[in-house]
Fold these 2 entries.
Entry 1:
Amino acid sequence: MPGFSTRQLDLDVCGDAYRLQVLSDRQQFADPDGHAERAGVSSAQWPLFGQLWPAGLRLAEVMHDFDIEGKRILELGCGIGLASLVLKRRGADVVASDMHPLAESFLAYNAALNGLPMLHFRRVDWASRVPALGLFDVVIASDVIYEQAQVAMLADAIATYAGDTAEVVVTDPGRGHAARLTTALALHGFERAAPAARAAGAPHALQFRRLAVAA
């Protein structure tokens, strides 16, 4: 027994069917070896990665029609990895990342549930650079800012892995950090792009592009 319970969730992403393994509820917790604690994941935060949040679904919908041709894509804080799964099904070159110790196994299981090959996963702590990852043409994330202090950390992580003229998509459920993220990314040379169309009440998809630096 893993010490936590799961359930399977069937959903539709822009007409495509997906099945996901998620945690049964937000009360699940199991860290017998202390891996999550050492990674800085508290017991309150522990189950958050294993849920499908509205912003996660919104990011998956945006990625369903996003231009992926010739682009290398990084998802930060992938959780159960729905957006990365959508990209993988489309044939994108995508790397999923998270700091939660169970994110990789959930991502692998969900890929198998949907008949997809194993996704490239890397454990990434925003505060520690992983040079081997290289640079990406697109960096995406969903609902990853819960506290004001995380805004600068996210912006720094995006800037670390974003190549010249990279695109960024961050879906935001309205926690009040969108303006701060825009300001923080501007310090790294990103400008806000026109927002993607959305249904009333749906999370915002904040989009940015890194400005090319003149030689």
Note: Strands lie at 6-13, 16-23, 72-76, 93-98, 120-123, 136-142, 162-172, 190-192, 204-210.
Entry 2:
Amino acid sequence: MSNPSWPSPLIPRQAVPSLQVPTLDHGSFSLTEDAATNFTLVVFYRGLHCPICLKYLLELGRLQPEFDKRGVKVVAISSDMRERAQAMADKLKAPALRMGYDLSLAKAREWGLYISTSRGTTSIGIEEPPLFSEPGVFIVRPDGTLYYGAVQTMPFARPHFDELLAALDFALDKNYPARGEYVGTL
């Protein structure tokens, strides 16, 4: 049985939904007003309660200069409120990493993210919010169209940032098009 409120998946080479969130130290982030030279890497993470997110974002912060060299802007976003996002940023100690917060769950769903319910306190002793989005990684072209997308139902087995860097090198060198764009009859 289908759920009429569930959006269609995002399609490569087509426009992604609008995205605007506050960030901790870098003003407001707007995907349409902050287009990168080559791509924008949008990393949606679960929130402060997720130890796997911390490890994942530490790697992103470490590799951010490599994305910068390739003309790729980076933003990490959660549905956490400012205080929780700041606590995550304090753990990361990566001041150059733009940390967005207050992502509405309706907007998360527009982007095709899965939504989970709280299971209480996590293994690191932090209470999960009543509802929160699961991870997603998107690479968006400057024109606002989807180049790459990966969404997950679980916190683990996410795309590796070093592999994304290698893929971006290949894509930029070969002018490789976004794939998965066909929506016609099968």
Note: The two ends are 21 Å apart (CA to CA).
